[in-house]
Amino acid sequence: MSGMDGKRNLLITIRYCGTRYHGFQVQKNAVGVCQVFQDAVEKVLGERHDVKGCSRTDAGVHAGKYCLSMKIDKAIPCDKLVMALNAHLPGDMAVLDARDMPMDFHARYHCRGKEYVYRIHNSRVRDPFSPNLSYRLGYALDADMLHREAQAFVGTHDFAAFQSAGSDVEDTVRTVHSFSVTRQGEMVLLTVSGDGFLYNMVRIMVGTLVFIAMGRIAPGTIPAILESRDRANAGKTMPAHGLFLNDVYY
Q1: Cβ neighbours of 166 (radius 10 Å)
Q2: Angle at 133 (CA atoms; ends 130, 137), nearest 5 degrees
Q3: What is the pLDDT of residue 157?
Q4: Is residue 229 exposed (0-12), middle (13-18) or buried (19+ Cβ within 10 Å)?
Q5: Would you please indicate which residues are annotated as catalytic (active-site) residues?
Q6: Confidence class of residue 166 from pLDDT cuts 50, 70 and 90?
Q7: Which residues, in sequence order, are bridge partners of residue 12?
Q8: CA 248, 132, 242 angle in degrees (round to 5)?
Q9: How far apart are CA 247 and CA 157, in angstroms?
Q10: pLDDT single digits (tens) 131-142
Q11: Direct distance between the N- and C-terminal alpha carbons of the chain, in angstroms, rounded to an integer
Q12: Residues 196-218: pLDDT tens digits?
């Protein structure tokens, strides 16, 4: 799928622990995932390449699967590129796959949807082994009840009430394909997939469910909150370190 000039367009899939990174995008005064990835590419290919990520991410957010596209003019096989990049990446980041794509492919603009998982460690006692990989909440959560409440998010809605205050996005209509809440021991997993998400939308939806569990928002009121389009009616924005970008669809 290389172009007439020998250029190739690659789709590269990575995963990373976001604890020490200030999101994916390059930052002037902080370390971003993109910068570290570009550093590794430069060591392998001998030059710095422009990288297109599938989405922006906040500081502290993790990714079990993150996709990016990059054009190169080297003939290195994809499997060898994966191994070479992993040899130069830090331990909290890894390349899972690389494949050739059509020259007009773009990791962001061709993305059809994403799946996020928010992890709540539902225990009064902290987990000393992974404090940055979940949000600890001591209040006992009824996962089945929260699952029923979360179904009000499924479908095509105006999610203006579930975006960060002050956001200047004009089109706030999004489609949520599924939203499940399950318990695995002390861990409560909130998994949501959709065609796209507003800034902080997943963290605010989760925060709203937590407020319902704690009695700070009445059960059954998510439809009214959606209709209000008012951020003040929804729950809090949950901390970033419990959030994982779990899958990306093309």
Answers
A1: 7
A2: 90
A3: 98
A4: middle
A5: 58
A6: confident
A7: 68, 98
A8: 45
A9: 22
A10: 999 999 999 999
A11: 17
A12: 999 999 999 999 999 999 999 99
Report d(CA 215, CA 25) in Å as an integer: 37
Is 118:242 a contact under the CB 8 Å cutoff? Answer: yes
CB atoms within 10 A of CB 98: 20
**Tokens 């999101």 appear where?**
23
Name the nearest CA neighbour of 105 among 133, 77, 67: 67
Structure tokens at 168: 């200047």
How far is residue 29's CA from residue 186's CA, in Å, rounded to a whole number? 37
- The amino acid that residue 229 corresponds to is R
Statement: residue 1 has pLDDT above 80: no
pTM: 0.94
Average pLDDT over residues 150-163: 98
Pairwise CA distance, residues 10 & 1, whole Å: 10
Torsional class of 80: left (φ above 0), alpha (ψ -120 to 50), beta (otherwise): alpha
At residue 175, φ and ψ (nearest 5 deg) are: -115, 120
Q: What is the pLDDT of residues 234-245, one digit of tens each?
A: 999 999 999 999
Give residue for tokens 């059809």.
Answer: 112
Using CA atoms, how far apart are residues 115 and 138, in angstroms rounded to an integer?
A: 26
- The CA-CA-CA angle for residues 171, 63, 76, to 5°, reads 105
Q: What is the DSSP secondary structure assignment for residue 74, as one 8-state letter?
A: -
